Each structure stands twice: as C-alpha cells, then as structure tokens.
Input
Amino acid sequence: MGLSEIAADLAVTAEQRDTGIATVDSTDGALAERLASVADDLPCGAGAAADVVDAYADGASVGGAGEAAGVPPITAAKTLHLVGVDGVCPLAPMAREIVGDWIAGELSRSEARELTGASTTEFLLTAFLETHEPIPAARTAVEPTLGPGDAALSTDDHLAETMTDATEFL
Output
C-alpha cells in the first residue's frame, strides 16, 4: 500500500468547529454559599472570603486578593490562612519560632519584635497565624476553587508510602 492509497480518503476542510472550553464543576453551589457555614469563624463575611479566595486562585497576591475583595491585606491573609492556604506568613521560619516563644511567655514582646525585625503588622499577623489553625470545613469548601492537588491545601503526603521511615534502618 502506497502513500497515495493511504491518503485517498483524506479530505481537507477550511474551517474547524469551535467546541469551547470544557469545564468540570462538581461543587454544589457557589463558593460564598459553601463558606456560609463557617462565616462566623472568618475575619470577613462569606462573600468577601469567597472573593479573596477567587482572586488568590486567579494569581493575585495576598494584598491584591484583599483589594479585589474590598478588605485590608491583613484580613485577606487571615482569611487565606483559615481556609488552609500555606505561605501567607510574612516572617521566616526562625522569626516564627521567636513569635512562638513570645506567645509561650518565654520572651517579652519588645525582645521578640527586636529579634524578628518585624513591623507591628507583620508581628501581629504572625501571632494570629501561630495561634489559629485552619478551619477544616473552610478548607473543604475552597478545595474545588484552589484545586485538590494544591500543595497549599495538602494535609497528607500522597507519597508517604514511598518514603522510608528512620526506624527501617535500625
């Protein structure tokens, strides 16, 4: 069979059919509706929290997400933390430990502020983040928006079974 025989039934068309963008949405409602059950635990209303999450998911910075939702950047950072987004803390891990020492009463506030080199806003935001855990129901509500594979929402290590345990070497 030659190339001409293979190509005999092929036809070239001048136009393509536009099928649009395929979307899959398995959620039962808008993000604001899903966050309504935890709205009392968030620093802003469910609608504003949904706007913060949507803007952040679209690539906005924490401050940009707050601006898009009409809330201050610190409120946006608190909201993102409470819905399970990691990485909103303005301080490095060592500075976070120092804030933790202040919370535990091991350092005075002035000592902790001096050691961290943080502004008042950064210090207070970090103190909030260190004393408030993400809300599991809020994490579940935003998962469809931020994505199930989002590292910021990962609570368990999907590759844990491939890792070795230190006790295996004993």
Observations:
- Residues 31-84+134-150 form one domain.
- Residues 22-28, 149-156 have pLDDT under 50 and may be disordered.
